[in-house]
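Look over both lines before class:
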Amino acid sequence: MAGLASDGSNPDVSLLYDINGLAKAAPPWFDRVMEFTGEYGTVLGLVLVVLGCWWSVRRRGTAADSVAGVVALLWAPLAAGIALLVNVPIRGFVQRPRPFNDHPGLDVLVKGKTDFSFVSDHATLTMALAIGVFIAHRRFGFAAIGLALAAGFCRVYMGVHYPTDVVGGLALGTAVALLLAPVALALLTPVVAAVARSPRGARLVRSRRADDGPAVAGAIGLPEARLGADDRDLAA
């Protein structure tokens, strides 16, 4: 399978040339932007999305909603790690060379890639994170999925992956994050609920400004919220 997609008539290769051809026509500064975005920028963007989502789920809905949201966010990086581990034997089995090894005319923006190409680690990582965020919060999830798609496009633009490497990574990240989510969420929920009940850990799950009534907070064992003047103004 090492020679997969080495034929220039293959649509996978044609699309590779079309997307990578944009790098040939772009000014050098834009290529540097795409290089940074593809290597680090989308991952850093996803970290910011996760932090923003965590800040949001702590402040909205009921205490039980906050616990569920934080559980999903905790699952997101775990899913990404598991997906990357699953990708290790896949890469070893397929053994697909990087596209620039079979197609020397490509404009390669990042040098030194010596591992196999299928599937893309970046696409796998970013999409697994994005699906975890989507489970926690739809609006932040759509933003995260957009970043994952951007990461995949950048990897092809940079000449280090075939389009199907990216599609495979997006599919793998999605499958791991969704298929294992029921078990993971069931295991993580008691842990996060216990953290929420602890005096020091409660603020990691529920914002001080969130209005938790005694009945709602008590449903998961959280202490009754004490609203200050600012909190009452916010709740009003």
User: Anything to note?
Assistant: Residues 63-94 form the longest helix (32 residues). Residues 1-8, 212-236 have pLDDT under 50 and may be disordered. The CA atoms of residues 69 and 77 lie 14 Å apart. The radius of gyration is 22 Å.
